[in-house]
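Contributing new complexes? Match this layout with 5-O-phosphono-beta-D-ribofuranosylamine.
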Amino acid sequence: MKLALLASGNGSNVAAIMQAINDGTLEAEIVAIVCDQPDAYVITRAKLAQLPIFVAPLKAYKTRKAWESAIADYLKEKGAEWVVLAGFMRIVGAPLLEAFPHRIVNIHPALLPNFPGRDGIGDAYAAGVTETGVTVHWVDEGIDSGPIIAQEKLTVDPTWTREELEEKIHHIEHQLYPKTLQRLGKEEEHFS
Ligand code: GRF
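Output block (do not edit by hand):
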């Protein structure tokens, strides 16, 4: 699988995917990393790993379409087959969806369709739920709305702080995302 990873922040999921590739549990190659936030730590991670990185702030482009088309062109040029959103805090639109049909996935830190949006962990915590979790799903033009590929549940201990919940969620994400990508790659081999 030739993966392009799109991220906006810390990049702990990017790191988990890199690790799984190094361990051999994910048979894939990262051909590109794209980040829309020039100060994001994921850029440092990409550089340390000597992976190709494209920093593309939205405001550097005249239109949203021009920005997204530039990203899609870069990913095509790098030979990406799969687009993996890992904390990418932007809605994906037509240029990427049309360039990579049925090949864009996202991870969300809640049990969709519950708590979509920017702060799935904080929203679930504030709601006082007894169960939350992590979702990997196909990306469509909506916000965290595409068909679900995989979910893992987490029972919330009512004594946990928000930070503790966040730590448990990230721990699940870092296992579930590489595992699900490996499964998708194998399914594709099987059906092609
Ligand atoms: C993750 O919780 C992911 O589910 C959400 O954004 C967060 C990104 O974290 N979409 P990181 O940048 O991978 O550390």
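Reviewers usually confirm one structural detail per submission. For this one: Residues 162-191 form the longest helix (30 residues).
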